[in-house]
């Protein structure tokens, strides 16, 4: 019966999408390797413990009269060393792996390579894509190309991409399993993800954080194409798409589900900055301006206090004059 269950489980797992463990991007590949190594290290403890549990239960069962009976046994130095030493070593190794990978796979860290065989110059300039999580769709702005899309992301393969990510209303999560791990998109904040895609193809992207009624349909297609195909796509989008300005964004930001792909051949300058600072709507004060004014008021208040503290009172002047006279 157990063998039948194992075979059935294996057959069911053959239909699973294994893109997380077989990704198309270098960052996701390194993350998959980290998961594999960590799992194998933990199995070094889990498998022996399960095997010994079954062995002890069978060997020391009630009707096994050949098993050694030692009711007064209570200690073994060798056994204690194995029980505590092996897990301790594995915890140390896992800690080192976690510390190293946390720094090497930091989403804000600029890429140092295209893949394991192709290093990247420190002076390289990645392509920037600005991502906005809307209710319930994704807006992608290409500031260098001057275009934008809704629910469609296209980038050239083997090209480092720097995603600048924010949200319009509620917190969301930007996730393309084939490219890299998920990263949160939050209103009024700008998060960063550096990644590179190494294999051409069409991949799935979606929100990994519940954000309301249309969350389950908040998906998009990610197209990895050659540089020539990307340039052709940009030219076609510029020729056929309309323009996205602030008024257009205000219409786009309204909640909607199953939004079809849209392309914009032009984007108003400073739109992404206005989205982050929550001042797209005319007459709204930007967060950056409010914070700058608050900082100025605090600075002026501190300066005023310092100036007041430096003003001598008549008594202070008398004491200073008396001290000078006594020294002379």
Automatic annotation (TrEMBL):
Keyword NAD on this protein? no
Any idea which UniProt keywords this protein has?
A: Cell membrane, Electron transport, Lipoprotein, Membrane, Oxidoreductase, Palmitate, Respiratory chain, Signal, Transmembrane, Transmembrane helix, Transport
Its chief place of residence is membrane
Task: List localization entries.
Answer: Cell membrane; Periplasm
Q: Which SUPFAM superfamilies does the UniProt entry name for this protein?
A: Cupredoxins (SSF49503), Cytochrome c oxidase subunit II-like, transmembrane region (SSF81464)
Q: Which residues form the Cytochrome oxidase subunit II transmembrane region profile domain?
A: 12-109
> What Gene Ontology cellular-component terms does the record carry?
periplasmic space; plasma membrane
Q: Where are the coiled-coil regions? A: none
Q: Output the Gene3D superfamilies linked to this UniProt entry.
A: 1.10.287.90, Cupredoxins - blue copper proteins
Any GO BP: ATP synthesis coupled electron transport
InterPro entries according to UniProt: CcO_II, CcO_II-like_C, COX_ARM, Cupredoxin, CuRO_UO_II, Cyt_c_oxidase_su2_TM_dom, Cyt_c_oxidase_su2_TM_sf, Cyt_o_ubiquinol_oxidase_su2
The protein's topology relative to the membrane is: Multi-pass membrane protein
* Top-rank taxon: Bacteria
Q: What is this protein called?
A: Ubiquinol oxidase subunit 2
């Amino acid at each position: 019966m157990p063998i039948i269950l194992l075979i059935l489980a294996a057959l069911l797992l053959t239909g699973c999408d294994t893109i997380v463990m077989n990704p198309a991007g270098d960052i996701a590949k390194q993350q998959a390797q980290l998961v594999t190594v960590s799992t194998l290290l933990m199995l070094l403890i889990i498998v022996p413990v399960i095997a010994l549990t079954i062995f002890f239960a069978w060997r020391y069962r009630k009707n096994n009269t050949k098993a050694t009976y030692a009711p007064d046994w209570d200690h073994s130095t060798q056994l204690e060393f194995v029980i505590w030493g092996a897990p301790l070593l594995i915890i140390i190794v896992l800690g080192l792996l976690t510390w190293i990978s946390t720094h090497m796979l930091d989403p804000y860290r600029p890429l140092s390579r295209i893949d394991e065989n192709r290093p990247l110059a420190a002076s390289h300039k990645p392509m920037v894509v600005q991502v906005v999580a809307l209710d319930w769709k994704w807006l992608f702005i290409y500031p260098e190309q001057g275009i934008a899309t809704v629910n469609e992301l296209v980038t050239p393969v083997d090209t480092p991409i720097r995603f600048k990510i924010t949200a319009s209303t509620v917190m969301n999560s930007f996730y393309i399993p084939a490219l890299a791990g998920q990263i949160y998109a939050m209103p009024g904040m700008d998060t960063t993800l550096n990644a590179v895609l190494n294999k051409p193809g069409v991949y799935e992207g979606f929100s990994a954080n519940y954000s309301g009624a249309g969350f389950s349909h908040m998906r998009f297609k990610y197209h990895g194409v050659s540089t020539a195909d990307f340039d052709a796509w940009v030219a076609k989008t510029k020729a056929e798409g309309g323009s996205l300005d602030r008024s257009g964004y205000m219409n786009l930001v309204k909640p909607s589900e199953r939004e079809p792909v849209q392309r914009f051949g032009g984007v108003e300058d400073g739109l992404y900055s206005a989205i982050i600072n929550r001042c797209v709507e005319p007459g709204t004060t930007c967060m950056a301006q409010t914070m700058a004014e608050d900082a100025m008021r605090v600075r002026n208040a501190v300066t005023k206090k310092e100036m007041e503290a430096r003003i001598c009172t008549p008594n202070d002047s008398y004491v200073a004059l008396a001290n000078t006279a006594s020294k002379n």
